[in-house]
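Table 4 source record.
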Amino acid sequence: MNEGKLDAAFKIIEEGLRVYPYNNHLYFEKGRILRTKKDYRGAASAFNVLIKNDPEYRDAFYERGICYFHLEDFTAALINFNQAIRRDRNNADIYTMRGVLHYRKKAYAKSEKDLTKAIGLQSDNETAYYYRAFVNSNLDKADAALADLRKACKLGAEDACKIIKEAKR
């Protein structure tokens, strides 16, 4: 969605919240728009209100976790991803993000486990294959790393394709 459409949607949501201040769906959409605009603090704030209103709102913890991830508050991000998984154990995106977070924290065994779970839930998860390639490389599993890079490339991860091309030189 382009910037103008995001701004228009945001105005509609803000007006909706003035009329319906306890509408959780509007807080969710507000948070998603702010996250899309890279206003991670503002988005986290919207998700905070939503979670306060409805602590079982399934996707709010995942979205708030992404915000904290981008703010590099990895502890808060991990707590939120764990809460999201508690509410939805079959969502590959949550396992992927938690796996990427573990990778960033150099917790490679945990990262490998989450990324493998994500791939098991969604076999065409290019992001999970891409990051698992780096995890495998750090775990000295060169063949597995190359296989994951090839799979990520085949699924459309352009950076994986570039890495493979560079390695052939």
